[in-house]
Here is the input.
Amino acid sequence: MRKQHKQAGFTLIEVIAVLVILSILAAVAIPKFMDLQKEAKTKGLESLVAAAQGQLHMAYAEELLKQGGDTKKAWGAVQINKQKICNKVSRNGWLLDDTSLTCSQHQSINIDITATLKSNPKISAKGEFYDPDYTPNP
Here is the structure.
């Protein structure tokens, strides 16, 4: 008499079905992961802009004390030293090798702050620092 052996394992159809399901999951998950990665980089750049805004606020407050409360002189000093002030943010560890931070004068009442990813310039964040003494006309 022959012994009957039980076969252990999966059939070819079962293996193919699992591979198809895994492929579908990967096709859905990979784009989502890439979007999350881009969003995380953008949020990092936004925090870099916020850090630069905070640094500009601190510099303005220091200048205001040095200038004896003269807001025009304090704002003028901040405008002159804007890039140096922004560079403090990068030297203090906020700026990664793959990012650039620029502070530029757009108008006399504000400083534009831009953080950009060097490896992908399409990913960036922008902000502004207004003259704290400025009040717009209604």
